[in-house]
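Notes on consecutive records. When two proteins share a document, each keeps its own sequence and its own token line. Never mix them. Below: protein one.
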Amino acid sequence: MDPPVDISFYLGEQAKESLSNLDVPVSNGQIVSINLTDELPDDPNELISFLEGENCSKKYWISIATAYVQLNKLDEALTIINHALKLAQFSEDEKISFHSYLVWLYLKFISVGVDKENYLIKANMEISQLSQQEASNNTSNILSQAVLYLFKDRQDKALDIFDKLLRIDPNNCFALLGKAQIVLHKTKHYANALKLYQQVLVLNPMMKPDPRIGIGLCFYGLKDYTMALEAWNRALDINPDNLKVKILLNLAKFSRTFTNSLSDDEFIENYQSCISQMSTYYKESANDSVILLTLVSFYFSKQKYDVVQALVAKIVKNLTGYVGDSDPIKFNNFTKLTKFQSVILSQCAYWLGRIEFTNSNFTQSSKYFQESIKLNDTNLPSKLGLGLSQHNRGSLEESVMTYESILKSNGKCLEVNYSLGMLYAKQKSRRKQEQAIEILERYIKLSNNASTSTAPHEDLDDLSSKEPVALNAYLVLSKLYEGRDIGQSLTYLNKAIESRKKINQDVPLEVYNNIGVFQFMKQNYSEAAENFELALKKTDDKIEDADGDLNLDLPGDLKVTLTFNLARTKEISNQTEAIEIYETLLKECPHYFSAKLRILFLDCITTQKRTKKEIKEEIEALLALDSSDLEVRTFYGWFMKSFGKKLGLKPDADTNLQKDTLVDYDSHDCYALISLANIYCIMARDLKAEDAKTQDEKKRKYYIRAIELFAKVLSIDPKDVYAAQGLAIAYIENKESNKGLDILRKIRDSLNDISIYLNLGHVLVDLKQYGKAIENYELASSRFTDEKDSKIHSYLGKAWFLRANNEKNLNYYLKAIEYTEKALSYATGSHSSLKFNLAYVQFQLAEYLTKLPVGQRVLTDIEKGIQQLKQAIEILNELSSDSEVHPPYPKSELKARATLGSATLLSRLNAVFEETKEHNSQIAEKLEVAKKIREEETAAKLKIQEEQLQAQRLKEEELSKEREKLQEQAQQWAEEARMNVIVDENDDDDKFDDEPKEKEKKKRGKKAEKSETAAKGKGKKRGKRKAIIDDSEEEELSNNESEEESSTKRKVEENDEDEDDRPKKKKSLSKEFIEDSDDDLEDDLFNEENGEKNGDEEQNGEAKEEDS
């Protein structure tokens, strides 16, 4: 059996039942039981009479009043308490309790929104009176003061009181609940508030208000919706009649309905269930603001705006007491509102604003939204509504500012990213358009990452965790990228198709058309045709507009455009089929001049079905139908320029036509302006005058006029690339190359066309920036051709040749020859000019080699030069032969140059070869001689070094032998000296036998000390010590021997200063022999330096002894 989940879990069944019954003892000794939930009368006077008659104590009066409060019958409870206060049976202390209860009853009135201002005053007065009658530390009175501060929205003061109470009693549940509420709603520190609520739950699981409600709110704020629902469900188990918990659970269900419904049917079912439950709660509490606001949302979606306004007015009346007789409600007039009231009123203003927005009253809707934001500055829907209202009434800048301010505080809001991106996209500023791209791409990223799935749906497809992206976002991004990156523009159009397919919606035909156009621009003609054909198939389907109505005109209008685009694409692969499509289109739309002009154009250049005269007549017929059609006039101008001479037209016929177009029809016709500008450039190039100064002046005037015309076109259409290129070329030909170069570089950034790179290459060649010119030519070749274009290779050959002449580099000449040979191999038609170019470069290579200093020549390069020169001579002879029909120069000049090459230049080159060969052989001989001399010098140096090393080794051997001899001699002398010392010592003993023993002992003691001191001084240089002997002859003899030994030692040291074997010699003496000696002899022989120091100390010692 499962344990109970209601209040009986904590109190037990018996205690649970006792809470709903009140046993009142009566005067006859019996007990009357009153059911506090089901048997309370509507009129409390019956119970008042009973309690008064039985003279019941205070607790019964308060219990019955509390029962009425729990049934939301506050007036009845107030009647009971007021009557009790009038009775004389209660003492003053008991009446204080009633007054205290009265305070809480007033606060209850305030909490349910009944006459707030009045009851705030009454509660404040009661608290003031109680504070005078009771002790200042009365907990109930202090708590009531804190709660009153909460209702006055003075949360800081309330928090101070709660903290004060908690310092007195850390387990005060009321104070903990109050502090938790402030932390939750004011600071939004959900984790801290959660700890406080959980502390209350542990201390008192049956606490009212239920801390589980606050726990659920904290978990909801922490995004742990599962735990929040568990907390609220548990609170409902404890108290099934708790309306606040029911409302919270219903709102959570609303949220899940809006975010987790996977189908329309599921959404409808869940939504109806939520609304049904909320309607039930409305019957329980008709004045609850949250319930009313939920119903406002429902009736707004049903477009029952009158009901919405009535509900909003009811909410405003309940919160403020305001009864508006006239619309609109002025929310700015409401003051002294609590935070909760401000939030509710903000929502009311928001819904009124939406009603006005729906009615297209954007000025009034803006006012409501602004009032809503003032009441609650975190009301995001009101901010979005304000931005939309501003935009719809034409205040674009204000709308942008509103959305920008929203974006700063709500960077991940999908709606504001989308709206601001769209507004930026409408502006002409390049910076704004870049911002539009950035924001719209962020919107798409946020939509794809917007997880709306919950635990039960985690295993569903990716669609459940993504917010559908607005189709317009993809289309606008595609348009923004159109002039920057066609590839990226295509990508977004394909994503638009994918997004529509995911939600089972039709793809607009315009999307397929745009994809086809972009594919055509990228020269993907087959893909372009596929998209046009697919769109044409879909024109037969029914197309609905945004309101769901059938759009009958759209398929027909689009079909004409799609058919023309398909035919235009087919021109590349199948011109016959393209012409058939054009003709079919003309049958359906006879006055569709664009199709007719394409047919005439194809007749001009390829099909030749009509003669040029017939084409001219048809163009004139079109002009007769509509002489103001600029497209027809433009085509006629091109036709005159291309075929006017063949038809016998005047040379200036096309010029006159363009002038007439500008004067009579459209002074801003871009094609006419560009044509006139080009004519001025041609006139400047072809100008020939006898006076060079006059010629330059006229040229300059023509170019300036052309520049003005190109500039006018760009002022009309800043993206006209042909005008921009024409302007750049005009500047360059007018010797303003830097200006032209700047323009071409700007065009290169916006137009991906081969002509840009070729023109850049030409300009850079003129500016002698050959490296950059070569780079642009190579880009043009690799990007836009199959790298077999003869002209581009000819340009590369010229650039390398000019670079070789400028930098005098042999490899550059060879590169020029390589590219010129490639240009010749890829060329079609006449090759005479390319052959001459090749021969010319080969001649220049030969000239370069003959002028090189002999030290810089390489025989293999000269051999190549000879071969190239011979080939050049053959080419010139071929060009000067009778078989050549179109030689680039007079044949006589070509023949003379060939003769000059074979007779003079070739001979010089051969002479240079021989000279270089001889020079190289001489250099080789000199190098060989120098090498031999160097080897001999090296061998001589080695021999001398060997001799020096040998002599040094011999010398070292002799010195080593001499050192050995000296060491032996020194050892021999040392032995002899030791023997002499032994003999002298024995004689001294005989001579001094008569001296007092006491003095002898002292001397021997002194000698022993000296011997120890000498032993410590081993390892140092040798020194002298003098023994104290009274006999002068003995002393003299000893001194002589000592001097003799010292002189011998000095000789030994001079001959061998690096002697290291002395310590070993000392060790060879026997220990016994050293002890029998004079104790100082060893130090005299081997520690000369130490002996000198110790000798001085000994003399000082002797002096002290003699004094004694």
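Protein two starts on the next line and is unrelated to protein one.
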Amino acid sequence: MGLQVGVKGKQYPERLTTSYVRESDTFGRDEDKKKVIDLLLSSDASGNEMCVIAIVGMGGIGKTTLAQQAYNDSRVEQHFNLKIWFCVSEEFVMPMVEKSIIEAATSSPCPKFENPEQFRVILKKNLTGKKFLLVLDDVWRAKPDHREFLGQLLEYGARGSKILVTTRNKSVASAMHAIPHHLELLPKDDCWSLFEKHAFRNGSSNADPKIKEIGTKIMEKCKGLPLAVKAIGDLLWSESNVERWTNILKSNLWDLPMEGTYILPALRLSYNYLPSYLKRCFAYCSIFPKDHIFEKDQLVLLWMAEGFLQPIETMEQVGNCYFDDLVSRSLFQQSLETNSGFVMHDLVNDLAKSVSGQFGTDSLKKIVKMTRYVHLCESWGTFQDIKEDLLKAKQLRTFLTLRFSSVRFWENKMPRTILCLRVLSLGRIEYSVNKLPDSIGEMKYLRYLDVSGPQLYRLPDSICNLCNLQTLKLSSCLMLDRLPRDMWKLINLRHLEIDQTYHLKEMPIKMGRLNCLQTLTKFIVSKHDSGSGSSIGELGKLINLRGKLLIEKIQNVRSVEDAFDASLKDKAYLEKLVLEWSPLEEVLGISESQRGVLENLQPHEKLKSLTIVYYGGKGFPDWIGGLTSLSELKLFDCKYCSALPPLGHLPFLNQLEIKGLHGVVNVGPEFYGNCSNSSMKPFGSLKFLRLKNLSNWENWFYFGVQNEVETFSQLEELYIENCPKLRGMLPVYLPLLDKLEILDCQHLKASLSIDSFPVLTRMKIIRSDNLEFLALAKQHKHDGLLSKLKILLIDDCKKCELPMHQQFSSLEVLFLKDCCDSLTSFPLDLFPNLKCIRIDGCRNLQSLEQRGGDLVISEIGIWRCFNFVSFPKGGLRAPNLVMFTLKNCESLRSMPCKMHLFLPSLRYLELVNCPEVESFPEEEFPSNLKKIIILTCKKLIANLWKEILPRIEWLEIGGDESEDHVESFPGELLLPTTLTYLHIKSFGNLKSLDKEGFQHLTSLVELQIYGCPFLMYMPEEGLPASLRFLSIKNCPVLKKKLRSKKGKEWLKVTRVPNIVIDDRLIQGYRWQDWTFRYEYDHDLKFEQLTNCSRSVKLI
């Protein structure tokens, strides 16, 4: 087909297994769970130096389920700082494991690295000092380098880190030097409980003793394998006929040998009893690789393209029924990771491949003459390499790709086998197709075409010759600016996905002739005089539309009558509708014609989600209040609307977002709808409410004094943002409110207490000066303030005070910034469960107090508290403290005493601009300390040369331009041999780096030097051989010596593989990748703070 594939190594699909498990589906594993958890929590796993534990057992016995149960246990959750779940499947690829660990540790996508060594550097940074649990699920084979790899990971992590492996093979456990836990067959009684749950409608077999007798015998044939029990139970679930149960019991399939196939007889039986139409659909799934997550809607469209669906109703409805039937038989399982994803167990995947024979494959090497369905997930050189194998398949019907590295098309005579395809999917290619050849128009039988991806910029006109095409997917084609003019000729097209095609200017002409169309994700209204596009009236002819529809550029609708011709009111199967005009900057003034257009774009009353954007009318039409099935409503940037539509009476509305309605001044009784004369609670189903950027909103009148308690009775999340004129109070009582955020509401007044929000757990208040936090009702004086509150952020609220006469018993995360001016001493004992605190800019704060026992806190940050002078007398007793940061505390003179005793878990210590701190305590440093940052602490740096630094791995040290006492580095300071990363900053008089100080740094990987204007000399003996990256910035004298790559100083650094000077790469790999770092974010957003109580990200 003119296909070229770039070689980038094997690409891997999404994993099957996840860390989640449904407890209701597990029986008889309590003792196994206890034993595995005990091994994970043990400080010394029976002397096993690598701390690897393996759950060993045959396929279908429940290894993954047991691992999931242990992984999600609350004790395991609290014991480990970091948990990672990775499904290995048939091939153990170490870079994929490394990537997964980095992403789990940082909650960020892992960058692409050109050098595998970069992975290890970043990996070490993110595991160092952390007690982690890594689950490697479904490991098939192990090599010596795998054991070394796992040992290296454990060496990076803190003592007590564990790796849990699940495998069918004892040899894997042995090769990894793992402690094995052999999972035995499920006991008879537990098998029966599981069988009952799946085989009987009410989960019990009490109805028919004969059925129970036969069921017991059938269950025994499953031989204690949970997967077999579930499969055969689901097969019998809808059967009440004794003869049918007897036939299954006596089936010869129970006697077929498993040797060589590993296919359970119960699974064979389950397949054997499928209707013929389901057998074809199931066998087709053999093209999916093991561990692949697939979506219901996509698979139904593939079945439809292959002609498997007989249109008793619509083909899509038939396909959905087929799919649900396979789910009910446990051949498909819903992924617990996503709502729309489904998976097949490995053994079920084996069954599909067995019954499909040579017709389907997910491997290029297995393509033969009879192959009809191919799903490839690898990269193989050029198109010629693939072409030869594809030519073997004389009856090829499906060609799917899964994450190819790159594919390019060019004009070429396509092989005849390609011409007969029904399905061609190139939509998951990493570097996607940029254009299709004109010759694609020769694929007369093609029914499914997916070329989604950001690179495609052109569709050839010849695509309009594909008269049998049913599905065309162009999602995320960011560069695509037009569709072929004659698309109306695709008379069998049923699904056209063009969402996220932001450069698409208009729809082609005569779109209304596509009368089979069911999915049209976007319709762009053309100007009436353009002659090249479709008017909105074409939508009226598409009577079968369903799902979601975005209508853009509605300002191009010529008249109110044209809007009526769209016939949205007749489209009963549309669930989600977005009506979007162009930004109002392009439309001058209030447009009453837009009011008429919107009036006639009334959708069917069954619509579930409605969004209106950039509407230029002054008011909303009445029909919005009549959408009785509506569950989601968004009104964005309708800036001339002066009143909100009546919504409170809508019975199913659970999410409401109103943003940028600058004409709204009052929100009054009309907002609550027709509730005053009925027993209906206004907004009785609403769970999420966001009111944002309402620049002229002044008053919020609530729904009658007598009925206030009944309003918003189900509301869980409330956000009020940038409403600077809003006055008055919040709703008096929100009984289920869980999360409250108020931002930039300078005139809003509220007294926030347990009376108003009895179950509130998360609160964020920013730049809202009139909010007076925390008046407490007398009747609740013993309950404590907002007794459920776990996370609290107050930022720049001048009148907001935190009362210190009661306990905050549930609070876990606290962030105070530029508030609480009356606070002089912070009593830590009032916060018994606090795990993360940052106090920033509390100008009168002088001390932290602790009178009770040990704290559970893991992070403390004191920033810009200029009068802060002291820690608790006798030391800060916080055995779980991991991160300790002090910034701009200009009056502070000393650190807490006895840090080595009271802060044994401390790993990260940072002092910035604390000029009066002279030294660390005389005792030892905390034993687990890994990273120290000291910047602009003049007295401390002057005395640091007297200190013996601990075995840290990261040191960042810097002064300011006035520092004149440091002429050489490290001088008398003895740097530890464990040092891996060294950053030297802003020493104004530094002239040289000492050879004696660097020679013993055999672990040093990265050296950065910044802002040392007089630095001239590198160490005489050169830099350590271990050094991989050198960065020099704002060091003009040294830069001059190095930039020519000549001379004595260059010879000292030339062996360093990667060198950057003033952000310019001088030598080696792309420095942006090499220096990519997941450091702790000191400007942490509030949402990120919610994770602080779980674990802290450290280098």
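For the record: Residues 1-16, 775-784, 1070-1099 have pLDDT under 50 and may be disordered.
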